[in-house]
Amino acid sequence: MSVEWAVQATEFANCNCAYGCGCQFNALPDKGFCEAVAGYQITQGHFGDVQLDGLRAAAVWHWPGPVHEGNGTMQLIIDERADDRQRDALVKILSGEETDEMATVWWVFSAMSPNKHPPLFKPINLEVDVDARRARLEVPGMVQSSGEPIKNPVTGAEHRVRIDFPESFEFRLAEIGSGTSKTTGAIELDLKATYGQFAHIHLGNKGRLN
Predict the structure, then answer these.
(1) What is the DSSP code string of 132-194?
(2) E strands within 50-96?
(3) Which residue, among 135, 106, 126, 111, has the nearest Cα to 208 in the 3D structure?
């Protein structure tokens, strides 16, 4: 019998695709491959009787082709403030363990990433304002990522667009902006003004909860 878990979090993710991101529309990646970095600020969460409120996590992924073709590589980064049980819980959740098949984005990404680096436990600085489409994610010495609104190329005004996704296994509604990220270590990313996603997520072991 699987462990019952649920996580409410604020998410910022930056992938290498153009602002539309083919994954959200059952389309192939515009650059032929996929890579991304994401950060999560948990507002409320539990894994069985393990409380996860207030903790943070991040992840970096790379696939040589579309995600669904697999052979990806992933690196989890867990908040160093978490105790041993919380660390174990977050690694399992973000690795798709104790989760129904295909139920969450973490299950899918993990299933499509047979190359898993050992999780790291580090300080994670994360600020996300979903409505303003602004974010900053930092893992000192490893991840520098930021998000901002897309700008109108003629007027410079902030452009607002959202993805409304009733059947998504990640979010119900996401604000879309521009992300820039640089990561070092096992998976090196260098993204400039590519797809940025800002969302409130609510996931559990059986799938999305809102």
Answers:
(1) TTEEEEEETTTEEEEEE-EE-TTT--EE-EEEE-TT-SS-SEEEEEEEEEEE-SSS-EEEEEE
(2) 50-51, 56-63, 73-79
(3) 106
The three-state secondary structure class of 115 is strand
Architecture of domain 5-208: Beta Barrel (2.40)
- Angstrom distances, CA of residue 158 to CA of 46, 133, 155: 37, 10, 9
d(CA 208, CA 200): 11
- Is residue 69 classed as helix, strand or coil in its secondary structure? helix
pTM passes above 0.85: yes
Provide the residue-wise pLDDT of the chain in tens; the chain has 210 residues. 689 999 999 999 999 999 989 899 999 999 999 999 999 999 999 999 999 999 999 999 999 999 999 999 999 999 999 999 999 999 999 999 999 999 999 999 999 999 999 999 999 999 999 999 999 999 999 999 999 999 999 999 999 999 999 999 999 999 999 999 999 999 999 999 999 999 999 999 999 998
The two tokens of residue 85 are 């049980």
**Domain range summary for the chain, segments of one domain joined by +:** 5-208
